[in-house]
Structures
1.
Amino acid sequence: MSYWVYRRSFAPRHYITRILVLPLNRPIWLLATGEDFRYPQAVGGRRTLWMTLIHHYIDQIIRQAPHNRLLYQRMVEVIHLLRSPMALASPAILMGILKRPTGGP
């Protein structure tokens, strides 16, 4: 089999991968790379207001997870890539974070 026949046989799969799989991985990629911007020495891009809000939201999730079983379970599922990061934005999770104030730094 020549190189061009071999390469052409995989073209449709590569196209499908690019169209279907990459958008599904985008929230996971943004969650992982967005955490890099917590540190001033991070290079490549800049910290936006949106990232600052996401960082604050993730901080609240981490602080309240030991006190909220559902929140803890969802956080672990997202960390282990069993659920999308959007699972942390469900109404039950949002209400749990807004309802319970946290103290400390």
Note: Confidence is low (pLDDT under 50) at residues 1-6.
2.
Amino acid sequence: MNSSKRFLKLRPLIGRVLARRAWRRYAAASWTPESLELVRRRVLDSLELVAELLAGKPFLLGRHPTLADVAVFAQLSALSRCREAGFLADVPAVDAWLRRLGAVPPIAAALSP
């Protein structure tokens, strides 16, 4: 059996182990469901602020991507690979902007493996 097939069989177990480890970390840091909800709300507020900046424009400062787009993209593209990626679905303008910016040739080339 090749390594990719073994990984696929272990994937559910690895996910549970990582989730348990994350929960223990949150508990050790005194995170509670209420404080996690506060963090969730702050993330959504920040995403809504980015959506306001994008209102009527393809990029943060106008028709062309700028350093501001790249800086925000770097932070939010990491979010899109996390369990919390569902937050992006709550703010479609930001999700569309991430996809649009990720398709800009130099950025797409930098992101490709």
Note: The first helix runs from residue 3 to 28.
3.
Amino acid sequence: MDNVQESLEETLRPWITKKMQEYLGEENPGMVEFVLNKLTARIAPQALVTSLAAALDREAESFVQKLWRMVVFESERARILASD
């Protein structure tokens, strides 16, 4: 795992954990790992929505949209910091 991926996971893990707890009503480390593994595999956003639909129902699309915004922002931030 490169520095950008490590930074991304470090930033996203707490947010994903919080959102899964909100959506599912309890902590679910397995779902957090599932989402992080899908991100590491560079799955397309729509495929992630489909993968999460059974667990998150109507919230899947909203979750993935917010997640993708964070991924883009954090990836750019890490790239900029790495170039300094």
Note: The chain has a mean pLDDT of 90.
